[in-house]
């Protein structure tokens, strides 16, 4: 009951007209940027950070919530209407949604994605509302070694389980850990790896790294092998009557619910966030399709409805460890933590008490943002299609410009922009040679936190290493890592198996 | 082409790119893996030079750098071995990436040049014009024609951002000597 009162207070904040406008602005900008090809939610938030530098915390977090959900929505439009997927979470949607669009059922695909995202997003936000306080209450009792164990779990899942190559993921993670080391050691005040440069004494700003890797690295990489010529966007039939027929509803509602049920739990555990959730949902829809299984790979609506619902439910699930443990499990979450930190807010078990009004306003804005998205998105499809047609040279030039603006606006120092260019080059080479960039961002944020926990643990135990594993929770976490590694390898094999229908399906004549 | 039915034969003479790319790409990838390992060695060596204050009782400021350095060396070495045994990385795809073309290094260099010029132009000509240089430069490198339309778009965008972010949102972007006196551009 306590939660409900707090949530209602959150709503009373968010429903204030000014905040409603901020929420509307957030979802609108988030969707517009998310629709842009090549820009996932992580990049959207990193690029739009400067927008909020001058806002007060509540307004900024409401805008962020909008951008976060909007970016997720926008990605599905891109993958349905363009030939190739944008953010990784939408890849399975691209298989079925793109086939549906080519078969002239693009509007139905967009509608089931949007309504499914709304249904699952709302269900997951309800789950978040009830789960977050419980987890926070439990997390207060966790000790330093328990937190360290949690972070090790996050390192292993983000570094080793995501992406196509384990050593490349670990390399990206290690690079991120190194960048996290640069600066002044918090416990002893010693400078580490600053090369005597005064600008580096405070450490490298995560915003510069995130924008450099996601925006500059991506723009330069695309520039190196640009697809020239006109952009092919699949046309969508007009009029709301074409959105979803009775049969589409009948075939969609169960996948929506199943997607929410799969997505939320997967999002809450450090297991890779939305990617894994969408894939699991796709695989289960395919298995449950019965006689319709042969439609998969040729445009089965279940294959859009389920994964899209799972995607958005996972996006809410990710907020549970983020808000209650301060543990980012995806690159997007890592950047949200940075946004929190820029307001002096430290996510963790005490956040719900110390910043109660703010957190509940954020959660309330998730409900509001979800509703706005479903209302906005379907009628505005025509506009998003126009956004998709932006000439690519202007698109990537604009991405570079806003990336440069974001890092310049941090300290109003050109040195940050120069650092941005350097990190952008690193991002370019990582993309070119198949290194995932997300583990780098997560490693950079989590590295200093993990070091802090480790050293505090050993200070408590006076150097006794067994203290790290003797608490029941930590022991369970390390056992879970072993399980996760086994499960991850199994999942990857399944993923390869799921890719087969896409290759086998005949080309549309 | 001329060499019939020899799978994996290095066909460099402008043949199908799919066959020609792996042997070319491996060098850069090898260098990157080597750089990662070398960075690890550097971290291990430099970590020994971090001052440890006398008050530190258990794990000092050196321990975590040693761990990170060891991880870098290990994965760097593993990647060198992987690349040498022919298991190259799979480059990232994307909507606007053409998988059939080779890397256009000139474009990469020119994009980086546009960014670097932007960095040094901010304090000389002011943010809006430096932004225009970056936008127009990058757009032309990426294929915007005619160039003056890109330049015009860059100028409009630069001024627009200056007005919205500098004037309305209050970021102190320097308007530069040309626009010094204009009140609504002030950060």
Automatic annotation (TrEMBL), chain A:
This is Tripartite tricarboxylate transporter TctA. It holds the Pfam family TctA. The keyword Transmembrane helix applies. The lineage of its organism: Bacteria, Bacillati, Actinomycetota, Actinomycetes, Micrococcales. InterPro entries: DUF112_TM. Residues 20-441 form the DUF112 domain. It comes from the Bacteria. Keywords: Membrane, Transmembrane, Transmembrane helix. The chain crosses the membrane at residues 20-49, 107-135, 147-164, 170-188, 200-222, 325-345, 357-381, 393-426, 470-491.
Automatic annotation (TrEMBL), chain B:
Residues 31-174 form the DUF1468 domain. This is DUF1468 domain-containing protein. It comes from Promicromonospora citrea. The chain crosses the membrane at residues 30-52, 64-84, 105-121, 127-144, 151-173. Coiled coil: none annotated. Pfam families: TctB. InterPro entries: DUF1468 (IPR009936). Keywords: Membrane, Transmembrane, Transmembrane helix. Residues 1-22 are annotated as: Disordered.
């Amino acid at each position: 009951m306590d939660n409900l009162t707090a949530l209602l207070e959150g709503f009373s904040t968010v429903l204030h007209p000014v905040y409603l406008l901020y929420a509307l602005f957030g979802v609108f900008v988030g969707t517009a940027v998310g629709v842009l090809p090549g820009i996932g939610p992580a990049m959207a938030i990193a690029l739009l950070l400067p927008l909020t530098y001058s806002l007060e915390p509540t307004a900024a977090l409401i805008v962020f919530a909008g951008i976060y959900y909007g970016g997720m929505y926008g990605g599905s439009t891109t993958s349905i209407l363009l030939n190739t997927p944008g953010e990784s979470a939408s890849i399975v949607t691209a298989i079925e949604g793109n086939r549906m669009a080519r078969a002239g059922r693009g509007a139905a695909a967009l509608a089931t994605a949007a309504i499914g995202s709304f249904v699952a997003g709302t269900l997951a936000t309800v789950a978040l509302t009830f789960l977050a306080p419980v987890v926070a209450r439990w997390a207060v009792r966790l000790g330093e070694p328990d937190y360290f164990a949690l972070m090790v779990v996050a390192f292993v899942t983000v570094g080793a389980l995501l992406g196509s190559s384990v050593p490349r993921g670990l390399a990206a993670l290690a690079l991120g850990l190194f960048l996290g080391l640069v600066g002044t050691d918090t416990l002893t005040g010693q400078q580490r790896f600053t090369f005597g440069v005064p600008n580096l004494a405070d450490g490298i700003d995560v915003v510069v790294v995130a924008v450099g890797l996601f925006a500059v690295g991506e723009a330069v990489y695309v520039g190196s092998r640009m697809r020239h010529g006109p952009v092919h966007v699949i046309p969508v039939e007009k009029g709301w009557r074409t959105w979803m027929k009775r049969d589409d509803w009948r075939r969609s509602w169960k996948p929506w619910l199943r997607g929410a049920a799969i997505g939320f739990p997967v999002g809450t555990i450090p297991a890779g966030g939305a990617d894994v959730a969408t894939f699991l949902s796709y695989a289960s829809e395919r298995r449950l399709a019965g006689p319709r299984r042969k439609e998969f790979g040729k445009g089965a609506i279940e294959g859009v409805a389920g994964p899209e619902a799972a995607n958005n439910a996972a996006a809410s699930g990710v907020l549970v460890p983020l808000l209650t443990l301060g543990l980012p499990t995806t690159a997007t979450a890592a950047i949200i933590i940075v946004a929190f930190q820029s307001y002096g807010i430290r996510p963790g078990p005490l956040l719900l008490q110390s910043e109660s009004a703010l957190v509940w306003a954020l959660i309330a804005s998730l409900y509001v943002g979800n509703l706005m998205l479903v209302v906005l998105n379907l009628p505005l499809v025509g506009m998003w299609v126009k956004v998709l047609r932006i000439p690519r040279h202007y698109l990537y030039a604009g991405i570079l410009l806003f990336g440069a603006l974001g890092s310049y606006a941090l300290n109003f120092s050109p040195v940050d922009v120069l650092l941005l260019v350097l990190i952008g080059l690193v991002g370019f080479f990582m993309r070119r040679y198949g290194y995932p960039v997300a583990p780098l961002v997560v490693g950079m944020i989590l590295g200093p936190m993990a070091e802090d926990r480790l050293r505090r643990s050993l200070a408590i135990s006076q150097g006794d290493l067994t203290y790290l594993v003797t608490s029941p929770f930590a022991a369970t976490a390390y056992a879970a890592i072993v399980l996760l590694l086994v499960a991850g390898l199994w999942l990857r094999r399944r993923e390869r198996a799921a890719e087969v229908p896409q290759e086998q399906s005949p080309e549309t004549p | 082409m001329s060499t019939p039915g020899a799978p994996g034969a290095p066909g460099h003479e402008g043949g199908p790119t799919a066959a020609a790319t792996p042997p070319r790409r491996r060098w850069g990838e090898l260098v990157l893996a080597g750089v990662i390992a070398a960075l690890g060695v550097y971290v291990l060596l430099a970590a020994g030079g971090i001052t440890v204050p006398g008050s530190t009782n258990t794990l000092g400021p050196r321990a975590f750098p040693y761990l990170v350095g060891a991880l870098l060396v290990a994965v760097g070495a593993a990647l060198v071995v992987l690349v040498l045994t022919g298991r190259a990385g799979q480059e990232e795809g994307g909507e606007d990436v053409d998988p059939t073309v080779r890397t256009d290094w000139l474009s990469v260099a020119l994009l980086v040049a546009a960014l670097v010029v932007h960095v040094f132009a901010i304090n000389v000509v002011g943010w809006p014009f430096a932004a225009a240089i970056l936008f127009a430069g990058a757009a032309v490198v990426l294929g915007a024609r005619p160039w003056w339309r890109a330049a015009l778009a860059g100028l409009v965008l630069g001024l627009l951002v200056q007005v919205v972010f500098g004037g309305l949102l209050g970021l102190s972007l320097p308007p530069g000597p040309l626009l010094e006196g204009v009140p609504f551009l002030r950060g």
